[in-house]
Write a structure and sequence with these properties.
With about 300 residues, the protein is α/β, with parallel strands linked by helices. Helix content is about 30%, strand content about 20%.
């Protein structure tokens, strides 16, 4: 009997110890589902607009990774949106030939996908701004992994669309520089682990892993820095004691964004030494770092 009670207590401790993670509400629980008909397809998204949102409040788009689902993405970003008073949107990517939801960024196996996700995001921002009355100047784009790749692609092709772009563990395919059709600058942030085994810090120039040839992170960032015309640099160790080393590289004094009418562009690279393919939220308060970036480049 005693052993049975001890077993029950252990199980309860494990379940209750999981706390919010075990019983956390999903994006679908906390956001409203909406859709946009785009080029003959109904594109779904989930959106949260806090009450009494200010006229200057930004909109943050959050793009899931390869095979991901918008309605099960990071709910911590909803907490941040509610705390800081901004709108947040989780769009859903379409399925590729493998049946995986994704963003079309130029992977070799995406060649048969008849979708332009850059154009979709542009249409989505407009749709949200009209439906929900969000400030048209303060849209920000974020994405993790495959969503991070979309961040780099948008930075090359539609930089004037967003006040700033945030990539988590994203990479730059070697075909992306050829896609550039807009020379404007855009504030850009990247968080990346040097031991990432999916989006390698050193790149994959020979396409060993099937995602297409892509640049190492330092080279990818150098393209953004050059596009933004940054001519100053600072470096800061922001490591939290007992955690992996995190170095924040800032490239400063860039060209004014949005065809010379916006903020001076900056590029922030969070180098997580020994970090893997993840959000690095065990090393830094990444959600609030995202907010610091957004707050820095908001139009007021």
């Amino acid at each position: 009997m005693k052993k049975t009670l001890e077993l029950i207590l252990i199980i309860l401790t494990c379940v209750l110890g999981a706390g919010k993670e075990a019983f956390a509400e999903s994006v679908a629980d906390r956001c409203a589902k909406d859709s946009l008909k785009f080029r003959g397809q109904q594109r779904e998204y989930w959106i949260k607009v806090p009450e009494n949102i200010s006229p200057e409040a930004p909109l943050l788009l959050c793009l899931h990774g390869y095979g991901g689902r918008a309605h099960t993405y990071r709910t911590g970003l909803v907490d941040l949106a509610e705390e800081k008073g901004f709108a947040i949107c989780y769009p859903q990517g379409l399925q590729d030939g493998r049946g995986k939801p994704c963003w079309k960024v130029g992977y070799p196996f995406q060649e048969d996908m008849k979708v332009d996700d850059v154009a979709f995001l542009k249409a989505l921002v407009k749709d949200i701004q009209v439906k929900y009355g969000i400030n048209p100047r303060n849209a920000f784009l974020s994405g993790m992994s495959n969503g991070g790749e979309m961040c780099y692609l948008v930075a090359r092709t539609e930089p004037d669309l967003f006040a700033g772009i945030i990539s988590i563990a994203g990479l730059t395919l070697e075909c992306m520089p050829e896609a550039r059709r807009n020379a404007s600058s855009v504030p850009f942030m990247e968080v990346h682990g040097t031991a990432d085994k999916t989006s390698y810090w050193t790149g994959d120039h020979e396409n060993k892993y099937g995602w297409g040839a892509y640049m190492g992170v330092p080279a990818a960032i150098s393209y953004v820095v050059a596009q933004d015309g940054c001519c100053a640099y600072s470096c800061e160790d922001i490591t939290v004691e007992g955690h992996k080393t995190v170095i924040l590289h800032k490239y400063l004094n860039g060209k004014k964004a949005r065809k010379g009418t916006g903020h001076e562009a900056e590029v922030w690279l969070y180098e997580v030494r020994g970090g893997g393919h993840n959000w690095a939220d065990k090393e830094i308060d990444v959600f609030h770092e995202m907010w610091f970036f957004m707050d820095r480049f908001m139009y007021r």
